[in-house]
Each structure stands twice: as C-alpha cells, then as structure tokens.
C-alpha cells in the first residue's frame, strides 16, 4: 500500500504505525460515507486493508499528576481555560461531553450538598459527575468572565 511505503513522515521517512492506523481510519470512514451517500456504488471501505498495532506501538498519552498541575498552574490567571482544563482533569469527561453540557445540567444534590453534572456520554449512556467544590468555583469564575448567569435553577 502506498501510505505504508511513501516517505511522507517526519524527516522524509515512512509513517509510524500509529499514524498509518489513524490515516487509514479516516480514509475508511470517508469511503463508507461516500458509499452510504450513494456517491460510489462499490463499498471500497469493506475492501480496504486493515492496519494492526502492537500494544507497544500505541503512544502513552496520559498526563502525570505533575504535568496536569503544571498545566493548571500556567492557566491559573485565565479563568476560561483554567475552568475547562480543571473540568477535564477532575471529571474524566471527554471534551465533547463537556461541550454538550449546559448550565441547566448542573444541580445541587440535596443529600450531599455538592453540585453535580448530568449528561450523556459518547456511547449514549447517562452520567452523573460530582463537581468538587474547587471545580464548581472555577466554573463560576469561568461563567462570570463570560458574563453569563451563575444561578442554578432548581428542578
């Protein structure tokens, strides 16, 4: 296959396996869309070769505690980035899940006295996340900076 042998990677070298896997996933997805939308009659996505990665080829993208702390400390003076990054770090939610959340999804749990966030994850499963008091304060600062309401409507 052309992509696996082409000298298009860093330094004019072939693509790394993880890069090749990502590019193939995008191409297959696009070919499937073309077929589903009736732009092409033949299902090319079904005939494409698959890439396979060994576990040691998958890069570790986890951040260590000290790296998260450095990132948060750097953005401490920027309430919007600080609030978003804290939300990502403290809840484990995906960016898309946070982006879909609205202020109306935040509620005060009368039993614990803590604020919580309700939503739906990537797989369509409902979640209910605790908003640690320090995170809630950062969200309030974020909203105040945007000049939007910080009032929680009780349901």
The total strand number stands at 3
Strand content: 5-15%
> Mean pLDDT across all residues, rounded?
83
Q: Report the CATH superfamily of the largest domain.
A: Intergrase catalytic core
**Helix content estimate:** 40-55%
CATH architecture of the largest domain: Orthogonal Bundle
Q: Number of DSSP helices?
A: 7
Amino-to-carboxy terminus distance: 57 Å
How big is the Rg? 22 Å
Considering the chains and any ligands shown, give keywords for the structure.
155 residues, hpI Integrase, Chain A, three-stranded antiparallel sheet, 45% helix, 10% strand
Structure characterization notes:
- It is a single chain.
- The chain is mainly alpha-helical.
- The chain contains seven helices and three strands, in the order H-H-H-H-H-H-E-E-E-H.
- The protein has two domains: 2-57, no CATH class; 65-145, Intergrase catalytic core (hpI Integrase, Chain A).
- Helix 4 (65-74) runs antiparallel to helix 5 (79-91).
- The longest helix is centred in the N-terminal third of the chain and has 20 residues, at 17-36.
- It is elongated, with a radius of gyration of 22 Å.
- The protein starts with a helix and ends in a 10-residue tail after the last helix.
- 8% of the residues are buried.
């Amino acid at each position: 296959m052309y992509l696996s042998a082409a000298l298009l990677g860093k330094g004019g070298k072939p693509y790394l396996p993880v890069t090749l896997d990502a590019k193939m996933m995008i191409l297959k997805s696009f070919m499937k869309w073309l077929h589903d939308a009736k732009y092409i009659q033949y299902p090319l996505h079904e005939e494409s070769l698959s890439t396979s990665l060994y576990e040691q080829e998958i890069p570790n993208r986890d951040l260590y505690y000290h790296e998260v702390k450095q990132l948060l400390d750097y953005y401490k003076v920027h309430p919007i980035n600080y609030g978003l990054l804290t939300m990502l770090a403290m809840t484990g939610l995906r960016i898309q899940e946070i982006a879909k959340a609205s202020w109306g999804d935040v509620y005060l749990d009368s039993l614990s006295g803590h604020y919580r966030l309700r939503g739906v994850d990537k797989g369509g499963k409902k979640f209910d996340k605790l908003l640690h008091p320090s995170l809630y304060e950062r969200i309030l600062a974020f909203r105040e900076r945007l000049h939007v309401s910080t009032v929680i409507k009780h349901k």
